[in-house]
Amino acid sequence: MRIAVIGGGISGLVAAYRLRQKLGDEVDIVVLEQSERVGGVLRTGELAGEPLDLGAEAFVGRRPEVIELMGELGLDDQLVRPAGKRPLVWAQGAPHPLPGRTLMGIPSDAESLRGLVDDATLTQVATEPERSLSWEPGADVDVQTLVGERFGRQVVERSVDPLLGGVYAGISAGIGVRAALPTLATALDRGATSLTEAVREAMPAPSTAPVFGGLRDGYGALLTALTAAAGARVVTSMAGTRVARTPRGWVVDPLGAVDAVVLATPAPVIARLLHYAAPVAAEAAAGIELSSSALVALALPRDTALPDNSGILVATGEPLRAKAFTLSSRKWPHLAERDVALVRASFGRFGDESPLTWSDDELIAAAVADLSTVTGLPITPLEAVVQRWPGGLPQYAPGHTERVATLESAIAPLDGLAVAGAYLHGVGVPACVAAGTAAADRIVTSLGTRGV
Ligand SMILES: Cc1cc2nc3c(=O)[nH]c(=O)nc-3n(C[C@H](O)[C@H](O)[C@H](O)COP(=O)(O)OP(=O)(O)OC[C@H]3O[C@@H](n4cnc5c(N)ncnc54)[C@H](O)[C@@H]3O)c2cc1C
């Protein structure tokens, strides 16, 4: 039996690994990856002679998927936790504490915003429960419209956008409530009488468990262990170009006949691959857009007096080019032990891809200048590394949940075909691990039904 996995990011690699676990050694699993390396937007590079993640650098540790996977792969000793410091927001040319007690920056009370927004906005937030809210159950709207109407523009630009910019490389105008904030949509559907009430209902229960986790040597350690455990034939520098159904299974160009196939590429590629085999699914996938970003990692002298915060997020409308800084040496105790201070600067938001066209030198100069502005320090990097992520993150626009439901129901009758990826049910690494696992389950079930 032969199974193809197209796309060697975390979603595809997890699918390959789960297929190996469930189907045993006899199955020929082939991972087709168009670039010269596996991992997709997970990449551990090197800075100042030591490993550093240049894509994702953390995962939500309250979800079990990554921690369980690390355990299965013998990587328990790689699990690291952040120091628990809070980020700052750079707004109106000054640093402010990131508001607490929010749902992705949407406040549950006015007090948490004091100092970040003006008095009129504080009053608008405090009195929001007094104004009636109209919400059609099942409706979807972009986050900017909902939060802007109820709490005002300053809350959007200074509290919500900086957080959404981090997760989706997008801004609230292009992100839908239902897909990005499902618990909030549920609270609104249930009849919350104000946004404040809905946010309070939707916020996760207070917990002392650490919110995030990471890997001591970076995600590269997970990719290496996962690839080995999958025991797949990994064919790099080769793109899957088309999939078509045959009486006995599938044909994948340019690989040939297979019994089953997992598509684990970004959504626009899914749209091309499925153009003939599943046109309705292809059309739904084509409606999911991507945003691009670039990252500059800086190694600074160890004694650089960076603020004692995990990062600095930049509000919309500030005259800076960077959208966020991760103060990696402050955020992660294991990185604080290094001989240099580490900072990651991020650039690029949906709709503004210009930073991707800048040269390495221009990106590094912008990172240094903007970091100097937000910290008030002279910044003299000892070393720097640049990583671009064209199309690295899907945008969960309004209507996203429906698009995904259409895609999934269109492929449901197609035995031996499954999809996985960040565009389905969450962009975070845990959601991608879950998507890869679900895709493998679906293939195993359909092969069993076919008696293969
Ligand atoms: C800068 C950045 C920072 C992030 N930070 C975090 C974080 O801290 N925590 C977190 O949880 N998440 C983070 N994310 C999100 C998370 O990393 C991604 O959503 C996740 O890794 C996506 O995995 P994937 O396998 O679905 O897709 P991808 O990683 O995009 O993998 C898809 C693969 O398919 C390949 N491919 C494309 N077309 C073809 C083709 N025709 N044939 C064969 N192969 C093809 C691509 O080359 C790629 O390797 C971040 C994302 C970015 C961009």
Automatic annotation (TrEMBL):
Pathway: Porphyrin-containing compound metabolism; protoheme biosynthesis. Keywords: Cytoplasm, FAD, Flavoprotein, Heme biosynthesis, Oxidoreductase. It holds the Pfam family Amino_oxidase. It is found in: Cytoplasm. Belongs to the protoporphyrinogen/coproporphyrinogen oxidase family. Coproporphyrinogen III oxidase subfamily. GO terms for biological process: heme biosynthetic process. Residues 10-443 form the Amine oxidase domain. Its cofactor is FAD. One of its GO terms (cellular component) is cytoplasm. This is Coproporphyrinogen III oxidase. It comes from the Bacteria.
